[in-house]
Predict the structure.
Amino acid sequence: MARRVWWAALLGLLGVHGACPGYNSQTTAPIAATDNAAALEAALNAITTGVTVVLDGGSAVCGNSGVSSKISFLNYDGVVLPFTVTTSSNDLVLTSASLDDGVGGTAAAYGTRFPTVSANKQSLECSGRGKCIHTTGVCSCEATYTSSNAVGLASEGTVGDCGYRTSTATPVCPGSTCSGHGSCSGAPSYQCSCNDGWAGFDCSLRRCPQGRAWFSPPTVPDTAHDTLVECSNVGLCDRTIGMCRCNSLFEGRACERLACPNQCSHRGKCKSLRQLASLQEANGVATAGFVYGTGFNAMATWDADTIQGCHCDKTLMLFGEAPRYTAYDCSSTPCPSGDDPWTLNQANEVQEIVCTADGGAIALSFRDYTTKMLPFNAVAAQVRNALESLPTIGRVQVTMASGALCSLASSRTTVSFVTNSGALPSLVVDGSRLTSSGAGVMVFVVRSKPGTTEDIECNGRGSCEPSTGQCRCVLNFATSDGQGGPGILADCGYTDLFMNQGEIKATLLLLLAQECIRASSMKEPVFGTVNGTRVPRGVGVPTLTTDCDDVLFPPRIDKNRQSTQHAKMCIWMPDRSCIAAMDQYYLPGARPTPSGTFPSYSFDGSLVNITSVDVLESLPVDSSIIYLTHLGISRLGNVLDIDPFDVDETQLPILDLILHNNNISSIQSITFPHQLRNLSLHSNNIRNNAVHLGQTMSLKTLNLSFNRISSLANLSLPPALETLNLSGNALSMDLSFPSTAPLKRMDLSANNISDTTKVKWPPLLTTLYLDGNNIQVLFLRFTPTLQHLCIGRNPLKRITATKKMLDHFKTYGRINDPAMCPYANASYPLLECSGRSCDSAGSLPVYIVLDTAADELLFPIKQEDSRLGTLYISIVVFCAALVIASVAVWLEWKRRVRLNEDQVWHREGTPGNRPTLVDSTELFNDIRFDPTFIPFRIPSAAVSRERLLARGGYGVVYLGTWKPDKGPAVQVAMKRLLPEKLAHIHNIEDFMDEIRLNSRLQHPNIVAFYGYTWTSLLNLSMVNEYMSHGDLWTLLQQDRRSHALPWNIAAHFRLNWSVESTAADVARPTDPSAGLLDVSCQVSKERLLRDVVLALAYLHSQDIIHRDLKAKNVMLGPSYKAKLTDFGTSRSCTNDGDETMTAEIGTVAWIAPEILKGVRYSAKADMYSLGVLLSEMDTLEVPYSSVRRRQSIDDSSKAVDVAKARIAMLVVAGELKPEFTRSCPPCIYLIAQRCLAYNPDDRPSAAKVLAWLNQLRQSKPTLE
C-alpha cells in the first residue's frame, strides 16, 4: 500500500497522525519542513514498522512548488486508513492558495493526501492457509505453509500466520477440494469459494444464523441494533455444527431473543413485548390491550419481538381465587388474601341478576371464566354450584326471590361473594339462548352493594412465604372459612386466643387433606346387589369390612369380563347399601400368585368419591400388602390379625399395612397381624398418648408422619422396631425415646425442634433426619453409631462439637450426604465460625468446644479390673493370641494393599434400610458365583468412584474411572441400587437380571456394558460406558430456550407406506436427499430418532422388550450419537412372544394401554412408547403436560399422583393421546399416529419404522 502526501509550505513544524492498525492512534515526533525523506521515514517507523518514504519534487518534505511524499506500507494487508496532518504552530508560510491534489480536485494548501496505489493484498485470517484456534489465537497451517516474516510474505518468519509456502510442488485447494462444500478457484491462488452456510479457508466450518446486533457501535445518528451479525453479537458460533452457543441470557437460533428468566419457573409462558402488550388485564379481567410494534422493522420499537418477559399462569387456590404467580420469573406463589379479622364494618360484594325469560339457558362469566349453561329455571343451589366451580370464584351465597333464575315476572337472584375480597368486577351474563313467550328477553347484572372488605395478603395477620404460597400466621391466628370462622382457606382470617401453634398447624393439615380428597374425586362408587338369601347389613356408620359374601358388583374396568363379580372388601352404609371397596379387576395389572391369591390390595377413596368411612372392621386373608388411603377412616377394629368373616379364621399374612390420609386418632388396644413388618399412618389425626404397639412383635418400620404428636412421653413402641418416621408433627422439646426399641433410623424432619443438646438418642441409631426444624445451634452429641445426619433447611448459626466428637464423626459419619439427604445442597447464610477453634465437617464450619463430661458419656473409658486373677488370665490370653494376631495382621496388610483404592467407594456403608444379608446369601440368579460371568468381573481396585451423575427411583449412577489391565484409563458410569432398595432380596435379584441382560447386548446404539464390580452385595455395581452429553431429555430442555435443534426434514416430503427401503437406499452424506434439508447435518431430531429406532429394532430382533422407552433413557455420546440405556425393567419375550406385567413398570405417560389394563402384551408396547417419545421430541414437554395445565394441577405429590391416575384411565379407555405441535413434520406426525394406535396389531414394527425413516435419506424422492 502506498500513500502520497503533498506538502506546500516553506517552513514550520508538522505532525503526522495514523488511525489504522499498528499506529495505535499515535502521533509522530515533530517533522520540520526542511526534513528529508530519511527523517520522515524514521518518524513514521517510530510508531509502526515496515514504512518507506520517497520524496517527489524536492529534497525536503515541504517546498515552494509542493513536494509529494510517497509512503509505502510493507507490513499491512488490505486498505490502510489515511493520515491526519496537523501543524504544531502557525508559522508555516503558504506560497499559494491551493494546489492540485493529483486527482483533478483542489485541496488545502498543505497536508493533502491521497492513495496513489490502492491496496490489493488480502487481509485474511491465518493468511487464508490455515485454521485459527480461537481459544489460543494460534494458526494451524496447511501442510506446506508456515509462518512468514510479514514483509511482503517473502520468507519464513515468526509472525504466526501461514503466509510462507515451504514447498515448490504444485499447490492445490485446501480441504481436499474445499471439503465438499465449495469450489476451487484454481491457479494461481488456489483458494476456496465456500457455498452458502459454510466458511473457513477449506470450507469445513459452518456459518451460524445472523440476527440484529444487540451490541454494536451506532453508524447513524440515534440508530442502533440495525446490523445483522452472527449470533447477534451475544453468542459464540460452534462452527462444527453451525449452531450459536448463546449467552445464558439469550435464546433463538441466532440468539436474537432475550430469554425469559428460569423458563418462567414452568409457571408461565415466555412472551414478547408485542404479545405482552395485548394481554393486559384490569382487576383480573382481560382487556383488549394495545399494540406495540406496528411495523416489524420500525427502529423505535426494534425490541417488540426480541425483548421477552414472563406472563405468569394463574394458580388455583382452595378458596377458588385464581391470582397469577408473581415475581419476574413467576417463581413466587401468591398467598391467600382476605379481610383483616380485627377491622370492623366491612361488607361482602353483593350483585343481583335480573332475568326475564321463560325458556332456554343462560351462562355466567367472572374474570374470564364461564360456567356451563344453566336452565332458565335453575334453582339457587344450581347457580351456586356453577359459580363455585369457576377457578376465579371462591364461595358464594345465592338467594332467589321467586325460586328460579328467570321468569316472565323478572326474577332477581342475589349473589353474595363470601371469600372474594374487595370491590369486584361485575358478573357477565350470556342470555343469547334465552327465550320468552311474553314481551321479550331481558337479562342484566346490578352491583347492589360493592365489596368493602379488605383484600390483604394473609389478612394482614401473617407473612407470606413466596416459595410455597403459604401464610405464616402470627400467634392466635389461623386458617378461616372466609367469614371469620375456622375453615380451609389457608389464610390468617380466624382468631382463636386459646389455640396454640401446633394445633393450628395440625388443624390446617387435616382440613387441607380433606379438601384435597374432595376436590380430586374421579369416579362414582360402584354399588352392589344382594344375592340369594343374604340380608343387607345394618350399620350405624359407614363400615369398611370383608363381610361381602353374596353381594355382586358390576365390573369396574374391563367390560368384557363376566357381568358381575365379587369384592374382597366392601363398605356397608347406614342406608343398607353396599359399595365395592376392592375387587380383582380394580388394580390394573395385578397378577395372581400360583395359589390364586393376590399379592397386594389397593383402595383410594379419592378416586371413587368415598371419603367418609368411619370404621375399618376387618382385613382380607389373601394379601400381603394392603393400601387403604383417603377414606376418612377414624377408627380401627380391635382385632385385625384374623378375618372374623372367614370360616377358618387363620392368621392374616399381611406384611405391609398402609393407611395414609385418613382420620385415625388412636392405635392403642388393637391387635395387628402378627407378621406385620411395616405400618404406615401418614397424614392421620394421631395425638399424644395414642400409640401403644408394644405387643406388635414383628414390626420393623412405623410411619407416623404428619400427625399431631407433640410429646413422646408415653410412646409404646414395638420391641423389634428399627425405623421410625415422626416427620411433620408438633415435636419441640420433649424428645425422650423409649429404650425398648432398637431404633436405627429416625425421621424427625418438619417439626419445631430447636434444641437437641440434652436429647438421649437411641444407642443403635445410624441415620437421623432433622431437616426443616428450627435448630440454630447444633451440638454434634450423637451416638457413636450415627453414620448419616441430615440437617437441611434449618436456620443454623453455629455447629459445635468437642474435638473427640468431631474426629469420630469425620471417620464414621457424614452430614448432608447427597445420596441420602433431600436438602443436601441447602445454604446456611447465618452459619459462621472464625478463629483458632474452628474446624469443619464436610463443607460446614464447626466450632470446637471443651466438654469432658459429654465425651466420657459418649466414649466411656473401661474401668480396670482390680482382681489379680483377671490380670493373669489377660496375660495368658494376650500371649496365646500374639502369634495368631501377628499372622492376621500380615494377612490383613496384604488385603488392604490390594483393596486400598477400593475403600473409598465400597466402604461408605449403606445407611437407611440396610439389608440383613451377608455375602454368602443364596440368590436365585447370583452372578457373583456364575462361572460364565468371570470375563465380566472388574476388580474393585481397578475402579475409582467420583461425582454423582443421577439418582432415580431404584438406583444411583456415579461417574467413575476404570483402569483396565491393558490400555489407558476409561471414564465409566457406575450404577448401584439405592440403600433403601437393598432391604428386599427381590430388588437385588432384579438388578442382577439387569446386569445379565446388559451383558448380552452389543450394538452401536446401545450403551456399552463393560462389566460389574463388587466386594459385597451392598455395593454391587454395574460398569457401563459413560455418555458425556447426558440424556436426550436434557438436550430437549435446552432446545426449549435456544430452538437450535431442527428436525431437518422437508415439510413437503411424503412417505410411501407400501414401499420397503433397505440400507442401500440411504443417501450418502454428499448426495441430495428426498426428505432431508441438509444431509450433512450432524445433530438433528431425525438423526437422534434414527439412532433410537436402530437400537429398538436390534432389541426386538433379540426378543427383548425395553418397557421404559422415553427421552430420559436415551443417552448422548461425545458426537451426540443416541444410545438406549436403563434395561432395569426390560424382559426377554416369552415363547409365545408376549408378556404380562404390572402397571408399576415404566412410567405412566409412556405406557401402552394394554399394559395399563394388565393384559398380555408384546414388543408393540415399545412402539407405543416410541410414539410418545416422538411427542416429547416435538413439543419439548413431558407428555400430557397440557392436560395438567388445563386442569390447573399443582406440583404436590398427591396432585401429581391423581393426575397420573386420571391420565392412565383415559389412555386405557382410548380417549387420550399425546399432543403434537403444528410445526411437526407431517411424515413424523403420521409415523407417531401409527405407533400410538390403540390396537397393538395396528402398530408398525421397529424394522418397519426404520424402513420409513430410510426413505427420508433416499437419493430419489418417492411418490405418496
In short: The mean pLDDT is 77. DSSP finds 18 helices and 71 strands in the chain. The longest strand covers residues 943-951. Residues 1037 and 1180 are 6 Å apart (CA to CA).
